[in-house]
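Much of what follows relies on a compact textual record of a protein's fold. A complete example follows; check for yourself that the lines match position by position.
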Amino acid sequence: MGPGEQRHAELDRYLLDGERLVTAVHQHWGKVAEPVASAVAGLVAAFWVDGTVPRSLSLLSTVVWWLWFAVGLRALYLVAEWRHDWFVATDKRLLLFYGFITRKVSMMPLTKVTDMSYERSVPGRLLGYGRFVMESAGQDQALREVNWVPDPDHHYRAICAEIFGVAHHDADAVDRAWDHLAAPVTALPEPYAGWDEPHHEQPRRGSLYRSPDLQARDRSADTGPIPVYPPRDRPRSRDDREPRHDRDDRDD
């Protein structure tokens, strides 16, 4: 239950006027998984015993059915108690309501909380529950541990944000903001974007290293027709500028 949602009628009996609700949840269904599974397994076993034992052992069948009734009543009681359990956090305190016949309330003021952590076992990580542990200054408080907390990541952030007086952001909003901050200022094209498109052609780049066979192939490759350029005028040398008879006299 979020702070903006409607309160449950049972919570109004314990919350003060002007007390702002931060979170309120039932404990995780894993708390009653074992008694419900035991009741179902016991029912199957009772039907099997009732259908297989001979009439001479009818007393055994009766005992098995009475045992199943006890297991079934235990499961019903624990489910009813689970439905009446609440873990509540407000802007002033943490509360745990529990008990079906005898109602009990454990409470710890937020001002007394000096540290708060939570633990998640392997089944808790698989099923999605955790265990909160609150540390307080001074004497022991009535509320120190809360087991079977569903979605512990979300509730842990919400309660810690209230304890330390910071704004709480939803995990999806934080992820979106982080993606926005982590995105580059200028979008660069992907190195392989559109490589399979027909109109896309990657430029051919030379290699820094050329093996001997590639070098020989390049030398023997057809280079195409060689263009013919007109001869350029060669600058006249000193001998060309002097008359021939002057050169002969000089040689003699």
